[in-house]
Design a protein that fits this description.
It contains six helices and 13 strands. The relative contact order is 0.20. The chain is of the alpha/beta class and 243 residues long. The two termini are 26 Å apart. Helix content is 22%, strand content 24%.
């Protein structure tokens, strides 16, 4: 499996793609598995909420990114908490749709030529987004058991690109995906014909649609990545939580 290992800097400076990028944080869902009355994005980690941490890391990694928070459950409460200038898009149908609809809403609310989406329940460091080649579309993967066994995995061919994402695979998808060039055009075409059934797709199912239509995603596992999916309260006590 191919990996791109580059020195960590305070700003990614790989290509012009990182200067023309929209980053969508998918935080519309209820996240009831956390067993909290708060949205998952409002979980307090130290002196910041989870979404504030995500925005801070993204802002530090890129040169003037357009950050789009896709909200749904308790959207107004989250907006009041965010003391920063980001774009907010509301998925008003969050109870009846899934991540694909949130991705579509973010995608249609930017004119940037490069698009990155990140699930809203991820706690990650700068190294997660820094050791990457933004000249081509990619997904971030985990082969070191950072993600739960039940999470979506990926099969990777001998060129280091994703073949299919599915449950039950040992190498996990880190719920981060970047689109540029051909893959961005394919995604645009998919959204052009989106219907009520498509809106219920999970994000990995949307990626599979792009792959089936000829899209190619490199698979990267950054050497300095530290990432945790906050799926339930006990994850907050994970031994790898402090970053």
């Amino acid at each position: 499996m191919q990996r791109f290992i580059t020195p960590i800097t305070t700003k990614i400076n790989v290509s012009n793609n990182t200067k023309d990028i929209a980053v969508a944080i998918l935080s519309a869902g209820i996240g009831d598995r956390i067993k909290s009355y708060e949205p998952r994005s409002m979980i307090k980690i130290g002196d910041k909420t989870l979404i504030e941490h995500q925005i801070s890391v993204i802002s530090s990694c890129f040169n003037g990114p357009e950050i789009i928070a896709v909200l749904g459950y308790h959207a107004t409460k989250i907006i009041k908490k965010l003391n920063t200038h980001i774009r907010v898009v509301e998925n008003q149908l969050y109870r009846d749709t899934n991540c694909a609809e949130s991705i579509r809403l973010a995608f249609h609310n930017t004119i940037k030529n490069n698009f990155l989406f990140i699930h809203g329940d991820l706690y990650f460091n700068m190294g997660t987004l820094s050791d990457l080649d933004y000249n081509k579309s990619f997904i971030v993967i985990d082969s070191k058991n950072r993600f739960h066994e039940k999470e979506v995995g990926v099969t990777i061919n001998n060129t280091g690109t994703a073949e299919i994402l599915s449950y039950g695979l040992p190498t996990k998808w880190c719920q981060i995906a970047f689109f540029t060039g051909k893959e961005l055009k394919i995604l645009k075409n998919i959204f052009y014909k989106f219907n009520a059934i498509n809106k219920k797709l999970l994000s990995f199912e949307l990626l599979n649609e792009v792959i089936m239509m000829g899209g190619t995603f490199k698979c990267y596992e950054p050497s300095n990545m530290s990432i945790l999916e906050i799926d339930c309260i006990k994850d907050l006590n994970n031994e790898n939580f402090n970053m």
